[in-house]
Amino acid sequence: MHMRILVSFGISIAAGTAAWAAGSPADYDGDGRISREEFRNQAARSAFAADKNNNGAIEDGELKLSSDHRKALDANGDGKVSVEELQEGQVGGFGELDKNSDGFLDANEMKG
Ligand SMILES: [Ca+2]
Ligand SMILES: [Ca+2]
Ligand SMILES: [Ca+2]
Asked: Is residue 63 classed exposed, middle or buried when 0-12, 13-18 and 19+ CB atoms within 10 A define those classes?
């Protein structure tokens, strides 16, 4: 279940992240919307969950990424996607998803 969500955001950061946020318990305070803080926490959890062998890097067997997506996430250009880079890549999708820029993702925005 968790893996299926992770794979889905591997296809496209924004669209996949929306599905991930909508289908996850990211809304910790239960107010029906995802704050930037809740989004960041959830990104950290899913990034650490993706690193199955706990070596700090996200490898092909752990999360299927296209070479373009991998390049986009590899912020320091060392050819590896670290847990932190994956997390930041997800957090970077927040602004794109928050269409009205109020700092929260509501149900409509999470639909994409
Ligand atoms: Ca919330
Ligand atoms: Ca890197
Ligand atoms: Ca919003």
From this structure: buried
